[in-house]
Give the backbone structure.
Amino acid sequence: GKLPILCAILTIGQSIPTETFRTIIKLDAKNYFPAFKRLIEKGKEQIVHAYAAQIDGLGNDEGRFILCYYYSTTKDFDNLKNTIVHLNPGTSSMEELTQLLESIRPEFLEQNFDALEAWISGLPFLLKARYWMAARRFNLLLEAIESFHDAEWLMFYDKDLIDNGLESKVLKLYQSLVTDYLEEHYGDKSIGFLNEIFGHLKKIGAKTIQKEIISTITTKFPDRKRMKSYISNQQMT
């Protein structure tokens, strides 16, 4: 493939970076990014450093991604912070943004979250949630899920939220979701909904939450005979 050739050219020509970089762009404008990334992955950050000015001069997201990987690997957190906020979440690929997150130390995100918060808020939700969790901003994740008011999203993230001190708030949201659903649905739909939630809570070991939801249902819906029978069976399992 072309990558080994490009890596070799970059290695040999690092003493004349401007001319070598210009040659690389002419040879293969599409693969210079993976070539630099490969060099970083192989621990050859000094080669990338030789071309830092040329990469920065590109003024595009591909160049910024290369620099972010480089700064993350070399623990140059000031430059990483100043570069990452100029990545465009709207045009960057999910794959690259995910790989970038995986290369960044969680403590960097925690310590620099205020500076990065506006940039993170522009990411697609699934990726934004991952950045929030890496930065230990679980309260922001919970607030977003509360705004969705959707059990599927809550079941996707509840264990992470519970494990990070938000069990009471997760319980409150479950109680609200279950109450709202049961007020609008009866019969098989309501039982199916509860089966899904209780099955999930058993799977993650959230017995206290399940017990409290059952208590809420018993209090709020005392006259629904089928529900009463269902809840009685749940209490025995």
Observations:
- The CA atoms of residues 102 and 121 lie 18 Å apart.
- The chain has 17 helices and no strands.
- The radius of gyration is 25 Å.
